[in-house]
Design goal:
heterodimer, A: mainly alpha, two-stranded antiparallel ribbon, 2 strands, globular, B: mainly alpha, 3 helices, rod-shaped, transmembrane helix (chain B), proton-transporting ATPase activity, rotational mechanism (chain B), ATP_synthase_B_chain (chain B), transport (chain B), ATP_synth_b/b'su_bac/chlpt (chain B)
């Protein structure tokens, strides 16, 4: 009440975007909690971002399950679109990098990664959702771990007993260089890959959200709190906000593609490792 | 029972975005597993079935077209063979007809020549006979006429032996004259 009253009387202060935006209040299943973990972290807690993720996931399920229900040899317009999306991952990522045989094995994984990342990225520019499901570390981290496990599984299955030796001590290197090469290989392959996958996706979307909030909060502030000569400035930030929204769309697709293709590349490298 | 974020916000701290909340990981994993199962067990098999069906349809179409083409080629081949056979037959028939015609013509010509020769020979024979007959009758008649005439001129009859001799001589003269002339 006091907030409303103050807003009516004096100019609303500028609300800068903050990292707290990514940790909204848990409004459902706040109990039970884990007493020893992160100050009583709720086990099944659902906040706004979890809800946005559920909406994205449900949209994906509806689109793909309903869209592939009655498929025809000669596709309708909607079916063509779905086939194009799935075909992009199949031909452009899986078969292109892994070949048809291995590509088919890892296709469900790559398809899931691509579309899950894409859908949860896009929620960042969809009105009323307005936050990317991937801008909070959970999804990027889980998917990076999945990708990590996938390429280790692929390597170990293809070259049982030799995968780790091949990865850590590549053939054709003088023995004394292994002192340097092996730690470097370990760090780059087994530490940096999952970390970069996680951070690249999360930071892109997180920063994108902060930028959008900055532009639109500034617009709101210039237009409604300051007014006068600042309206021109507000128009400028609004245009920038629009432009950045378009840019964010590009980033959404690009980051989904990058995540899926890097996973495919890691699997390919693991499969192709020399004996 | 406050969330980390709320507590931090109240204290004026910024939450660390790199530290995942437990529910964040949990729900992310749940969503991933559900999506993976749906793509793996529902969506992709459907699409694969469709692609297989489509490939089969296309291959079937290609095969059908190839079959039709092969049939057409075979038909063309057989028509060509038949045509060639018919042509060969026609030309052989023509050849035979030409040979037959030549033979018939030769036969006819030979027969005509023969006939002509025969007719000529008969005619000559008959002419010869006529001539002979005419000659002999003329011979006797001319003799008698001449004798009659000479009897009338001389006024006396001549005995037959003398007259015969005269006639013969006369005729011989006549003949000689005819020959020399």
């Amino acid at each position: 009440m006091t907030l409303l009253a103050s807003a009516a009387n004096e100019p609303e202060p500028f609300h800068p975007p903050s990292l707290a935006d990514f940790f909204p209040q848990v409004f459902l299943f706040a109990e039970p909690t884990i007493p020893w973990f992160e100050d009583d972290s709720p086990i099944f807690g659902i906040n706004r971002i979890m809800l946005v993720r559920f909406i994205a996931a449900i949209a994906l399920i509806l689109i793909f399950v309903l869209g592939t229900r009655k498929m025809r040899l000669i596709p309708t317009r909607g079916q063509s679109l779905i086939e194009m999306g799935l075909g992009f991952v199949r031909d452009g990522i899986a078969y292109d990098l892994l070949g048809e045989k291995d590509g088919k094995r890892f296709l469900p994984l790559l398809t899931t990664i691509f579309f899950m990342v894409l859908a949860m990225n896009l929620t960042g520019v969809i009105p009323f959702l307005n936050i990317a499901g991937t801008s909070v570390i959970g999804v990027p981290l889980v998917l990076a771990i999945v990708s990590y496990l996938a390429f280790i599984y692929a390597g170990v299955k293809k070259h049982p007993g030799a995968f780790f030796r091949n990865s850590l001590a590549p053939a054709g290197v003088p023995w004394f260089l292994y002192i340097i090469v092996t730690p470097l290989e370990f760090i780059s392959t087994f530490l940096l890959r999952p970390i970069t996958l996680t951070l690249r996706l999360m930071m892109n979307l997180l920063v994108g959200h902060l930028m959008l909030v900055l532009f639109f909060a500034a617009t709101h502030f210039f237009l409604f709190s300051l007014g006068g000569g600042f309206i021109a400035l507000g128009a400028g930030t609004l245009v920038f906000g629009f432009a950045f929204t378009v840019f964010e769309l590009l980033v959404c697709v690009l980051q989904a593609y990058v995540f899926a293709i890097l996973t495919a590349v890691y699997i390919q490298l693991a499969l192709a490792e020399e004996h | 029972m406050l969330t980390t974020a709320l507590r931090m916000a109240e204290e004026g701290e910024q939450p660390n975005p790199l530290l995942p909340a437990f529910y964040d990981i949990l729900w992310s994993s749940v969503i991933f597993v559900v999506l993976l199962l749906i793509f793996w067990k529902v969506v992709l098999p459907r699409v694969q079935a469709l692609l297989d069906e489509r490939a089969a349809a296309i291959e079937g179409g290609i095969k059908k077209a190839e079959e039709a083409q092969a049939e057409a080629a075979a038909a063309l081949e057989s028509y060509n063979t038949q045509l060639a056979e018919a042509r060969a037959e026609a030309s052989s028939i023509k050849e035979k007809a030409r040979a037959d015609a030549a033979k018939i013509e030769a036969d006819l010509k030979a027969r005509a020549t023969e006939d002509a020769e025969r007719i000529t020979a008969q005619a000559q024979q008959r002419i010869e006979q006529e001539r002979q007959a005419a000659f002999s009758s003329l011979k006797s008649e001319v003799g008698t006429l001449a004798l009659d005439l000479s009897e009338k001129v001389v006024g006396e009859s001549m005995d037959d032996s003398r007259s015969a001799a005269i006639v013969d001589r006369f005729l011989a003269d006549l003949e000689r004259e005819g020959v020399s002339r």
